[in-house]
Design brief:
The complex is a heterodimer of chains A (about 325) and B (about 290). In chain A, about 75% of the residues lie in helices and about 0% in strands. With about 325 residues, chain A is an all-alpha fold. Chain A has a domain of about 210 residues. Chain B has a single domain, classed as ABC transporter involved in vitamin B12 uptake, BtuC (Orthogonal Bundle), CATH 1.10.3470. Chain B is built from eleven helices and two strands, in the order H-H-H-H-E-E-H-H-H-H-H-H-H. Chain B has a two-stranded antiparallel ribbon with strand order 1-2. The chains are: A mainly alpha (about 325), B mainly alpha (about 290). At the A-B interface, helix 6, helix 12 and helix 14 of A face helix 4, helix 9 and helix 11 of B.
Chain lengths: ~325, ~290
Amino acid sequence: MGKECVTIVINDIRNYKWFIITGLIAVLLTIPFWASNYTVSIFLLIFMYLALAQMWNLLAGYAGLVSLGQQMFIGLGGYTLAVLTELYRAPLWSSILIGGVISLIFALIISAPIFRMREAYFTIGTWLVAEALKIFFSNWGYVRYGQGFFITAAYQLTTTHMYYMAMVIGLGSVAVVYIILRSRLGLGLMAIRDNETAAESMGVEVFKAKLICFLIGAFVTSIAGSIFYLYQVFIQPYAAFGIDWTVAMVFIVIIGGIGTIEGPLAGVVIYVLLRQYLYNYAGISMLVLGLIAIVLIHVAPKGFIGTLQEKLGFEFLSPRRR
Amino acid sequence: MVQDFAQPILNGILLGGLYAVVGIGMAMIFGIMRITNLAHGDLMVLASYLSLVIISGLGINPFVTLVIAIPVMFFVGLIVQSALINRVLKKGNEPPLLVTFGLSIIIQNALLLIFTPDAKMLMNSLSTKSIFLTNYLSVPVIYLVDFIIAVALILVFNQFYQKTYLGRAIRAASDDEGAAELVGINTRRIYGIAMGIAMVTAAIAGVLVGMTFTFYPFTGTQYLIIAFGVIVIGGLNSLLGVLVGGVILGLAQLIGAEFVGTGYQLLVGYIILLLVLVVRPQGIFAKN
């Protein structure tokens, strides 16, 4: 009886999926008009971390690339924005975009050596690149060593502006992952995930598929990083290239559900709310998140959403065609 | 010219010994279970703080704190392995990696909460002393002590692997898990003990690092990369490789610093490591 009810509800949700999504987006669009500044900034953070987590999920959950160096693209994006707007008075928008392009080119350059590394070597290799950049930037006079920049161009913008920018990158990242997974590339990725050797012998271009994900991840992560630094205003190498970014991505994806599009959506809400709730105790919130993540890897390796989907047999944003 | 480089070369070699102690436990775990313990550096720093607490409580020499730190860290390793890692070993590459990553973040933040972000050091009389060989060349005593302990530790490990049942069982489990189980080796238990032993080396490394340099709650990451570098450069096949890997990394850092300035010291080490990863990901001294 209960099970039938659930099935009926699920079918209803499925039929009205796009209607629900449009409605949700409409509500999100109106938030700056009626919500408090605090609420707006919470949503802003949720959207930004959503973009970061979606990209990490695309790499780790679908392309089998567990990178611990994604912060390199945040640093590159943030620093490009800071240098172009502060030193050259370049327009904001093009600075953000150029940052994305620089990250993309940097990803392309390092992909040749870094893709030779497998599994744990890849993981630590990416981390090493980010750490190397961190030290390089803090010793580089052109970017004012470890002193950092105040990105004064950010003062042109209100929280509302930034909210919409974050919304575009946050929801855009969900759309990008959804489109990728429904494309030929997505089919290839899933084949690789199930059996890399078999996929390769069936003609899936494994290297190319992984590379495309890595590049898309670099670009979107960089843009999200720039937007974050517009919001934060101050950039400094140890934070910009710090592992904390990737820690956030990893925790969000594991808690929500690795290898699902909806997972990061749930994970990011838990992450941001917990961080805000324990704002004055930064260490404790990371401690709690770390414990939750470790426990979940043991008891529910697919996270909250992945486990729920298994129980209900229903995915809201299924990458499969029906 | 020679005088300029003699000191960094000497320091680099000696520092390499310390790096070998930092890396040896991680190399062992990597070799046996094929897992990368991303919390290795943080567990080592945990041992540094443990020693710090014992010193402030009992006022004893840092070396004497090892009497307590070694057994404590052995049990920490045993518990980490049996409670957290053994259960996810068969679930692919990512889960063990992510579990140790989570553990690393937990340790860092727990240390931050308890000990604040201030730099700490294990005070001792050795760290300020130097033996002057010439007017230009001196041996920092603590570096020398680090190196001697590293060599001793590697000799002990060599004997342990060759001569004891446990050492042979660990080697068997790392060569072929299935076959080892067939001849009656409980591999899960062996893994637990192996992690315990790895943490004994981390305890020794933690005390030595704490006596030689300052440390913070987040220093673990830096030593994780050093440990990884030692493995990558030295390869997994020999204990001597670990020492050679440490020495190469130490030399690269200090000679590099002589050329490009001390600010870039870590960077030079990282770049050498990346180059090795690209050219010979199996390690310079690996057999195949």
